[in-house]
Amino acid sequence: MTATKFALVYSESTEIIRRVIVPDRDEDLGNVHVAGDGEVMVVGDLATYVDYDSAHSVFTALMGREPGHGRCAVIDDHGNVVNLQMACPDLDSIPGHLLVQSKDAQVGWTWTQAEGFKAPPEPPAEAPLEINIPDGHVPMRIISLD
Fold first, then answer.
1. Is residue 92 domain-resident?
2. Alpha-carbon torsion (107, 113, 116, 119), positive or negative
3. N or C: more exposed end of the chain, with fewer CB within 10 A?
4. pLDDT (average), residues 117-121
5. Residue partners of 93: CB distance under 8 A and separation at least 6
6. CA separation (Å) from 46 to 31, 35, 52?
7. 93 and 47 in one domain?
8. Which domain holds residue 91?
9. Residues 9 and 49 placed together within one structural domain of the fold
10. Residues 90 and 52 in one domain
């Protein structure tokens, strides 16, 4: 018998979808333990699943709320955003770094517990180049010989 169901595994604390499982047969969903510590599995109708984006819609329909977003900034020990990654900060870790959820942060930003994320300051606009030609002098013209 072919599969008619699929499973969403999500973080219990953040509700970030961690995995989508499409089995060969429906029975396979009951035969294996696919949810780890801190994770929950819900089963949906395979006809409603098309891709990862549709998994969000299915989660919303099944649970009555939007799933959490998994976009995290990877913060080094100086507070610099050094990478972006899909993760659950409650369940995943990167040695020597902190994972902080953010829909907006970019590499190069900074983060502190007290102030949150900050974009780097905008560089000053370049001033227009001024050329002063003394009275009576004619500007030279450069001609390319190519």
1. yes
2. negative
3. C
4. 94
5. 99
6. 18, 19, 13
7. no
8. 71-118
9. yes
10. no
Residue 36 lies in a domain: yes
Contacts of 104 (CB under 8 A, 6+ apart): 117
| Cα–Cα–Cα angle for 97, 99, 100, rounded to 5 degrees | 135
Number of compact structural domains in the chain? 2
Q: Do 47 and 75 fall into the same domain?
A: no
Residue given tokens 């659950």 in the structure block: 88
Tokens 């507070």 appear where?
79
Lowest-confidence range among 58-72, 86-100, 102-116, 120-134? 120-134
Within a domain: residue 146? no
Nearest to 19 by CA among 54, 63, 55: 55
What's the one-letter identity of residue 109? Answer: W
Q: What are phi and psi of 48, to 5 degrees?
A: -90, -10
